[in-house]
Amino acid sequence: MTFLFYAIGLALVVLILTTLIAPALISDRRGQDADVYRDQLAALDKDLARGIVTGAEYDALRAEIARRLLATDDAPAVALHQTRRKRGLMIGIVGSVLVGGAVYAFVGAPTRPDAPLDLRKDQAAAALFNLPDQATLDAPRPDFAAVGIDDAYRAQIQILRDALVARPDDLRGFTLLARAESRLGDFPAAHKAQRRILDIKGDLATAEDWGLYTEYLLLASDEQFSAQARDALRETLRRNPQSGLARYRSGQLQLQTGRPDIAFSIWADLLDQSAESAPFVPAIRAQIDRVAVMAGFPNYEQPRPRGPDLDAIADAENMSPQDRAAMIEGMVAGLADRLANDGGPAQDWAQLIRAFGVLGQTEQAAAVYGEARSVFAGRPSDLQQLDQAAQAAGVSQ
Predict the structure, then answer these.
(1) In this model, does residue 9 exceed pLDDT 80?
(2) What is the value of pTM for the model shown?
(3) What are the structural domain ranges in the chain?
(4) Burial of 5 (0-12, 13-18, 19+ CB in 10 A)
């Protein structure tokens, strides 16, 4: 590709130089022809005086030489007009190509060989198969003392860790430990505890069990897929193909391994089918326009928000205050129960904080906010979401 690009550029430079220089060469040649014809006229006059040619021959020869001389005088104007047209056309073509080439050299990849579609698909399949091991992606354990974790709580968790060394099949103990490690922000420890839960349950492990394991793995690696996260996601979808969060992660996996076309297809369908309150919807909306361009759909337009949303319900004018409060309380109770039992991403915690604010239950919002900050300690982007939700709920920070 690089050789072809430079060869085309050189050919165009030669072509435009030829176009610019040729008129001067033609003009010079035509000037020499005119001098020859004038010399012939002078010689013909001498021949007539010497009697070499007759009057009739003289008239015929002089008329022909004169015609040729006049032709050389008119030709430059015609040639100049044609040359100007050609020159303008060539300058336009060359300018366009050179500008396009400069833009491509700046934003493109002129040094990268062409990659046919089949080759790119093969490369993506290889990337999906050869994902790194989780151990190489796990982030270091944060300094808990620096983020205000209660010493008594940390001491209790250490007691639980020590106890489980002697009780490797204690399902409830490892369930508590996985949640506790997640709350501490030690996601490598959390996914190891969740892995033990999967081993204990065996074939009885649910899609939720595998989904939580997937989330812990991704949280530990700053959302970079490892081979273990890929396999855990597959197990989640095998047990529940309609899991919204797992489908979102599946699109994320395809995007990371070089298939934005598949990622776009998954996310576009999921966005069409999901309520705005779904925890993965904000992440899809933030990324899908860029992914659509990568997938070859630059004119894609996101669907308008749909489905029940806590904020939208709070603002609904066609509901009585009593009905609105009852609906919100039911949704809040379900969300709070799910977060208490299974945990969830920062978007869900932020939604719960805002919901308590809508209900006027500022103390509950503050309590959830405090717990969520402990869960997501050391993750600035997640903490920012929580801070914004707390501010909207009227929680003092």
Answers:
(1) no
(2) 0.53
(3) 2-107, 159-241, 243-298, 310-393
(4) middle
Among 222, 264, 234, smallest CA distance to 382 is for 222
Pairwise CA distance, residues 191 & 250, whole Å: 19
CB of 185 within 8 A of CB of 378?
A: yes
CATH topology assigned to domain 159-241: 1.25.40
The mean pLDDT of 53-74, rounded to a whole number, is 63
Q: How big is the CA angle at 184 (ends 182 and 190), to the nearest 5 degrees?
A: 30
* SS3 of residue 72 by DSSP: helix
Task: Indicate the DSSP class of residue 134.
Answer: G
Four-residue CA torsion sign, 352, 356, 358, 359: positive
- Residues sharing a CB contact under 8 Å with residue 250, sequence separation 6 or more, in sequence order: 233, 237, 266
Is 237's pLDDT higher than 90?
yes
Separation of alpha carbons 268 and 304, rounded Å: 12
Alpha-carbon span 33 to 353, nearest angstrom:
94
For 84-95, letters b (16+ CB in 10 Å) and e give eeeeeebeeebe
The residue count of the chain comes to 397
